[in-house]
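Let us practice reading a record.
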Amino acid sequence: MLGGFECGIVPMRQADDGTLFVGGTNRGWASRGTKNFSLERVSWTGVTPFEMLKMEAEADGFTLRFTEALDLELAANPENYKMQAWTYIYQKSYGSPEVDNVTPVVTAVEVAADGMSVKIKLDGMTKGHVHHLDCSGLRSKGGSPLWHPNSYYTLNQIPKL
């Protein structure tokens, strides 16, 4: 999604022409920015940023799809995929610290021939945990960094082979 809004986002509405109207307030836990309230307009520039388009769970890791072809050398390097995982305590009171922290290890990377997707194989996927993937070492074939290099996936079930 987008960043840099003047305060915490409450409603969003898209107009028929594709313009996104975003309302905001400084009330609540998600509030950021310097304004007490805002109404902001986002217009499409026609340029798709280099992003992770989709993250799909597999029996032994994740498949990642991108909006542009990857730099194949960087994409093939397991060091460019860092993952952490954790869960929360389900309780009647509000909130929980992150608990049962694990560090899944990337054991292999398979890059599609067109560079538009990769399959990362992991040791340590954990059912019921939030998996945080940091891909800040990746670049597009043209050298652009990911606009949002972090992804989060709540792994409710591990798919079967």
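A brief commentary: The mean pLDDT is 92.
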